[in-house]
Amino acid sequence: MKTTMLSSGCLMLSTACTVMAGPVAPGVPSQSAAGVIDACSLLAKAEVEAAVGHPVLAPRREQVLNTSTCFYGDPQAPPEKLEPSPIVSVSVFVGGMEEHFPGFPMEAKDAFEMEKKNTATPQPIGAFGDDAYWEESRRALMLRRGNYMIEIKLQPDAGGQSAAKILATKVLERLP
To answer: What does the alpha-carbon distance between residue 106 and residue 93 come to, in Å, rounded to a whole number?
Structure first.
């Protein structure tokens, strides 16, 4: 099974992972001292709800090395689940961070090309950053702008490619 760089979990890299929840101020991207963009600072909960046509939980963010991911969970998820399934997730990979993350010197363009090459059926999407494609099997819009690679994943009932494009437009507007 193909594992994407952006969806790598905290279990494997627990010493480099930060999990946070709570309110964030979307619209003004925040960055860590190492330059990692807080993915939750790029979209407001209400913007996600409007794009997908579903209520979502407050954003929950994780950071693994130079990738920040924001999860907008399903409020209808069974209560016995520790973490509600995300309706939408947004990940931002920042390339060229070798001084902050030794041994991980990949540029965003290289990471994006590797992801694209490993995709079964990438559908090119124009007018989004430097390069973009939709991967139907993963329900993910992948895009790259400069030294950022962004992945926007949606659940099957969350509007598909059209909703991902709405969210991608807002994310791109707010990247530094």
So the answer is: 10
Are 7 and 1 within 8 A, CB to CB? no
Q: Do 152 and 164 touch, CB atoms closer than 8 A? A: yes
Instruction: For residue 53, tell me if it sits in a domain.
Output: yes
Q: How far apart are CA 2 and CA 57, in angstroms?
A: 28
**H or E stretch including 134?**
strand 131-135
**pLDDT of 90-103, one tens digit each?**
999 988 766 666 66
Q: Which helix (H) or strand (E) holds 175?
A: none
| Residue 6 within a domain | no
CATH number for position 125:
3.40.1000
Domain that residue 119 falls in: 14-174
**Count of the separate structural domains present in the chain:** 1
- Give me 13's structure tokens: 């890299």
pLDDT of residue 89 exceeding 80: yes
In tens, the pLDDT along 11-32 reads: 333 334 444 444 444 555 555 5
Residue 3 inside a domain? The answer is no
Q: Is residue 58 included in any domain, yes or no?
A: yes
Q: What is the pTM of this model?
A: 0.80
